[in-house]
Structures are given as C-alpha cells and as structure tokens.
Amino acid sequence: MTDSPPATTQLPAQSPPVDPAETEAAGAHATPSHAAATGRLSWWHGDSGEGARRNLALVGVLVALFAIGAATRSDLYSNPDWVWANMLSILKLASVVGVVTVGMTFVIIGGGIDLSVGAIVALAGVWCTTVATQSFGAGGMIFTAIVVGVAVGLVNGTLIAYGRLVPFIATLAMLVAARGLAAEISDKQTQISQNSTINGIASTNLLGIPVLVYILAAVVIAGWVLLNRTTFGRRTVAVGGNPEAARLAGIDVKRHTLLLYALSGLCCGIAAIMLTAQATSAQAGMANLYELDAIAAVIIGGTLLSGGRGTIIGSLLGVIIFATITNLFAINGLSIEAQNMVKGGIIVAAVLIQQVQFGSLSLFFRRNRLTTS
Q1: For residue 238, which of 1, 87, 246, 253 is within the disulfide window of CB 3.0 to 4.6 Å?
Q2: What is the 3-state secondary structure (H, E, C) of the chain?
Q3: Residue 330 maps to a domain
Q4: Is 316 contained in some domain?
Q5: 50 within a domain of the structure (yes/no)
Q6: pLDDT of amino acid 348
Q7: How many domains are contained in the chain?
Q8: Which of the residues in the chain have pLDDT under 50?
Q9: What is the pLDDT of residue 48?
Q10: Residue 302: which domain range?
C-alpha cells in the first residue's frame, strides 16, 4: 500500500503590497477642487447634510404654495406691492406661533413634549393685563409675562424631571390648570390693554417691516445659536437621543430637562406679549390650539418626535408653511374646516416621511456613498 501525496491547500490570491510612495504620489496629484467637491458630496449625502436636504425641500414647498396662489389668484399676485405686503402679513401671522415653536423645538429635541404652551400664553397674557400689573407700565407687563411663563415652565419641568411624570400627562394637566387659573384671574372677561407701548408693538414698522417680525427673527437667531453653538444645545441633543448615555457621560439629565421646559415657558411669555399687542387685550381662551400648531410645525421641520435630532430653521419653515396655507385659503375664500383637514394630512405625511427617511432612505444614501467612493 503506497502513501498518497499530501494534499496541497490553495491559498487565496493576495493583492501585492502597496508602496507608500505611490500612495503619496496619488494624493499629490489630486487637485484641491476635486477633494473639496468630494467632501461636499459626502457631506450632502451623509447624516450631516440631512437637515440641509430637508430645509431645501421645505423651501420647495413654499415655492409650490406661491405658485398655487399665483395660479388661483393671478389678479392679486400680478401686483408686486400686494405680493410684498402679503409676504409681510404671512410673517406677521407666523410670528407668535413661531416664537412658541422655538421653545417647543428644544423640548422635543430633548425627548419631551409640551401640550401646555397655549395655556401658558393665555395665563401670562391675562396676568400681565390685570389692572394692578398695568399700573407698572410696559416694563412691568413684560416682566410679569416672562416671569409667569418661566415659572409655569419650571413647574412642568419639576413634575417631569423630578416627579417622574410622563411629559404628555404632566403638560396636559398643566394645560387644564393654567386655562382654569387664567379664567379665575380674568373672571372670564376680556381684559383690555391700556398701554400704548405694548399695543404699539403690533402696529409699528421699522424700515417697512413689522416689529413682530423682528422679534421672531431675534428669537430664532438666539435659538439657533443656543442649539448649534453652545454646550446647552449639544446636551439637549444628547439627552433626547439617549438619556442613559447622557447621564453616564456626566450630564445632569434632570436639571437639563427642567431647563428645557423653563426655556419653553420663556418663549411662551414673549409670545404672550406679542399676542396681547396684536389683540390689544387678553382672555383665558386666547392662544387656543397653539400647542398643536407648534408641534405640527416642529414635525414638518424635521424634528424627530422621539428626540435627539432637529433644527430651528426647519421649525421656522414649518411655521411659515402653515401660515402660508392659512393665507392661501383666506384669499381664495375657503373654509377653516378644509384648512384644518389639509393641515392634518400634512402632519400625517410628515411623520410618514420621517419614518421612511430614517429607514430605507438613509440606507440608500449610505449605499450610494459607498458606491461613489
């Protein structure tokens, strides 16, 4: 019996070693413009460019709404002066809800929800228009509205962060309580603002632009800087994305949650002054359903309801889109009921788009990035 020769094992073919000199030479031949273009492309398709892609899509929606308005009311849109005045009217209409939406954006990015913002605006507005408060002048009214807003926000934050209540339940209870307190203070009556300085906020223009629009711009800029250029903003994203990981990283999650709801209350106090100036009065029923408008604008703007991601600019564009829809329905003589149905459909579509975007669409961009690299 003869021994069979040993079986030879076929090793997989290996690529030849790469000469470092050749790699450096290839990098030297790459032009700076090509490298910059590649970087921009990868940024645009990556997660970092997601906010820019969504904001660009929202701008496209605004352009489409403008086109619809021009097609349905060409007699009005053919007048440039009317178009400019109508744009200012839309921004003025969006100003109060826009300020509330900035605070709501922070709360939702931080993983919470605030259903009491409309009631806080009403309570702050009623409290700052009492006879006793108005006797202190415009400064006293503004101070009172802001203090009331921040105080109620702190109560919300304390119940949620330290009382361990679900944000939905805590803020829903505050919605009812704040409306009730506002009705008790005002005795269910409309309180007239007698202060000309406060009332002039809504009627004064600077360089042809309403003061309310300037206030909205200031709040949006401050919110953008706070979210994108400060430690507070980075902690907000961390807390909303993964509270346990944020805690292990040394972030005081409870205190930060408290501050988020205080910030939302601050925005409500500012909005209360603006709304009181517009109506020259305040009552317990003012700012009705503002919480739904703010949440809808935040969702349209791309902020995840689960927290951890969102942009201030996107939320602003969401507010302007809803204000434009309201304006478009008004100039075409359509009913509020139809407008509400359209808003509801937009909210559902936005949530569905979010689910697709952070699922299959994100996978598509990753695959596309790998293919093009």
Answers
A1: 246
A2: CCCCCCCCCCCCCCCCCCCHHHHHHHHHHCCHHHHHHHHHHHHHHCHHHHHHHHHHHHHHHHHHHHHHHHHHCHHHHCCHHHHHHHHHHHHHHHHHHHHHHHHHHHHHHCCCCCCCHHHHHHHHHHHHCCHHHHCCHHHHHHHHHHHHHHHHHHHHHHHHHCCCCCHHHHHHHHHHHHHHHHHHHHCCCCEECCCHHHHHHHHCEECCEEHHHHHHHHHHHHHHHHHHCCHHHHHHHHHHHCHHHHHHCCCCHHHHHHHHHHHHHHHHHHHHHHHHHHHCEECCCCCCCHHHHHHHHHHHCCCCCCCCCCCHHHHHHHHHHHHHHHHHHHHCCCCHHHHHHHHHHHHHHHHHHHHHHHHHHHHHHHHHHHHHC
A3: yes
A4: yes
A5: no
A6: 80
A7: 1
A8: 1-2, 7-9, 11-12, 14-15, 18, 20-28, 30, 35, 37, 43, 360-365, 370-373
A9: 53
A10: 56-73+83-363
Q: Does 26 fall in a domain?
A: no
- pLDDT tens, position by position, 200-229: 999 899 998 999 999 999 999 999 999 999
Output the pLDDT for position 305: 85
CATH number at residue 172: 1.10.3470
- pLDDT at residue 23, rounded to an integer: 45
